[in-house]
Amino acid sequence: MKRPGNVLTAVLAAHGGRCACHGACGKTHTGDDERCNATHSAKNKPLLAAPQTPHASEVQNAAAPLAELRPWCWACWRDALAAERARVSEQRSQELADMQIDLFDIGTDTAA
Q1: For position 1, what pLDDT does the model report?
Q2: What are the distances in angstroms from CA 42 to CA 15, 19, 84?
Q3: Rounded to the nearest 10 degrees, how much is the dihedral formed by the CA atoms of 50, 73, 15, 69?
Q4: Is this prediction's pTM over 0.85?
Q5: What is the pLDDT of residue 45?
Q6: How far apart, in whole angstroms, are the C-alpha atoms of residue 10 and residue 66?
Q7: Beta partners for 48?
Q8: Could you tell me if 102 and 42 are in contact, meaning their C-beta atoms sit under 8 angstroms apart?
Q9: How far apart are CA 18 and CA 38, in angstroms?
Q10: Torsion sign, CA atoms 83, 45, 53, 61
Q11: With contact defined as beta carbons under 8 Å apart, do 11 and 49 qualify?
């Protein structure tokens, strides 16, 4: 009886043993296809399975279906995740600022 593999094994089999980052980490990769050169066989630096597009929350990342997972090296994943969280935080801050504009609009006539 064949023993089923884990998620990382399935992701590596489907997408190869090389980090899938194409610059989401903020770095310019030097590979021929502008992909990170980190591989699963690199000594003491195994890859992890994570969503192709990082989500800001751990819950969203953990809930990603297998079809969305790609191999990532830890350095690229950490930096891509930080960039996504910063983007979402900035977006939320801007939305909050936009919602509060009317609260401080003193240029309108508010005769009671």
Answers
A1: 45
A2: 17, 11, 26
A3: 0
A4: no
A5: 75
A6: 8
A7: 72
A8: no
A9: 6
A10: negative
A11: yes
List the structure tokens of 79.
């930096």
- Work out the widest C-alpha separation in the chain, in whole angstroms: 82
Q: Do 61 and 85 form a contact (C-beta atoms < 8 A)?
A: no
Residues recorded for the chain: 112
Three-class HEC string of the chain:
CCCCCCHHHHHHHHHCCECCCCCCCCCCCCCCCCCCCCECCCCCCCCEEEECCCCCCHHHHHCCCHHHEEEECHHHHHHHHHHHHHHHHHHHHHHHHHHHHHHHCCCCCCCC
pLDDT along the chain (112 residues), means of 10: 72 92 88 82 80 94 95 95 95 87 66 52
Instruction: Decide if 39 contacts 17 (C-beta within 8 A).
Output: yes
